[in-house]
Amino acid sequence: MVSTTAISSAEQYVKAPLLYKGKVRELYDLGEHFLIAVTDRISAFDWVLSPAVPDKGNVLNSLSKFWFEQTAHLMPNHVVHADVDRLGDLVTDREIMKDRFMVTKKAERIDIECVVRGYITGGGWRQYEKTGEVNGHKLPEGMRKNERFPKPIFTPAAKNDVGHDEDISIERMKELVGAELTEQLEAKSIMLYEFARQFCEERGIILADTKFEFGLIDGEIILIDEIFTPDSSRFWAKENYAYDIEIDSMDKEPVRTYLAGTDWDKNSEPDPLPASVVEETSRRYRNIYDRLTK
User: Fold this and answer.
1) 1-106: CATH number
2) For residue 273, how many other CB atoms are within 10 A of its CB?
């Protein structure tokens, strides 16, 4: 999986109606099913940056496919297939599309982002510093940044199609989707996280936190969207783990680091990323894929 060509949009390669274009993913209507195409677009601070990052979409899609297969014994998911030869004339370039799409079932999306945190870091650490809590979870005093929780905690967010998702308490989630569904989603999210955390640890990787999306088909909860990718999870190399520091995560960290060192105001379109940053980011995505799947 080494490509020097970056795909900013799949529209020219898919002959089906485009229903939704996100920052990275595009959703096409195949009638009975969806086709989800994963582009090489990269975003930071709510901006889609340029240029796109070669192989990013291939990695995200292939990792999700890998994890959906690994977790299929735990719960059902939305994947129908990812075989480009079964698409026939629906795609105009099979080589470009072969690793960056899935055909999926049409589920009713549950508008909650199900976040599981195994370590106190990122936005969870910032909440804790201010309030001693994370999404309503009262935590012990004196925790240190990047410390592992005795047990993972469930910290949901209400999904917003525009702007940031909103961190909410479990009690608020119960008001939005009901107590029974909340309890089911919490249990399933933590079960999936624990499975992947153990899998990653055996490969020298710490899964610090992750997020899931779920849907309903005939009343049954299924996994949708993506799982355990660098865009939905925070991966740390075990050798980099320490308290009280910003741990370099195995994702688009080179992009964030570069942007933080510029005078970009985050309110106007940023300049194109330097080639060296794009190359290092592409290398990181391929590296996490190799470490997890080989």
Assistant:
1) 3.30.200.20
2) 21
pLDDT of residue 268: 93
Catalogue the E-assigned strands of 82-188: 101-104, 108-109, 112-119, 133-134, 137-138, 148-154, 157-158, 166-167
* Beta carbons within 8 Å of 164's beta carbon, 6+ residues apart: 46
Pairing of strands 205-217, 220-224: antiparallel
pTM: 0.95
Q: Give the residue-averaged pLDDT of 72-92.
A: 97
Bond prior to 51 in cis (omega within 30° of 0): yes
Sole residue written with tokens 């099979």: 94
Q: Could you tell me if 100 and 144 are in contact, meaning their C-beta atoms sit under 8 angstroms apart?
A: no
Q: In this predicted structure, what is the pLDDT of residue 2?
A: 66
**What is the reported pLDDT for 1?**
63
Distance CA 81, CA 24 (A): 20
Domain spanning 108-240, CATH class: alpha beta
Residues forming CATH 3.30.200.20 domain(s) in the chain: 1-106
- 40 with 54: CB under 8 angstroms? yes
Cα three-residue angle 99-83-105, rounded to 5 degrees: 100
Distance CA(224)–CA(195), nearest Å, equals: 17
115 φ, ψ (degrees, to nearest 5): -100, 135
> What is the percent of the chain where pLDDT is above 90?
94
How far, in Å, CA of 258 to CA of 267, rounded?
Answer: 16
CB 281 within 8 A of CB 252: yes
Ranges in the chain annotated CATH 3.30.470.20 = 108-240
Alpha carbons 30 and 229: distance in angstroms, whole number: 25
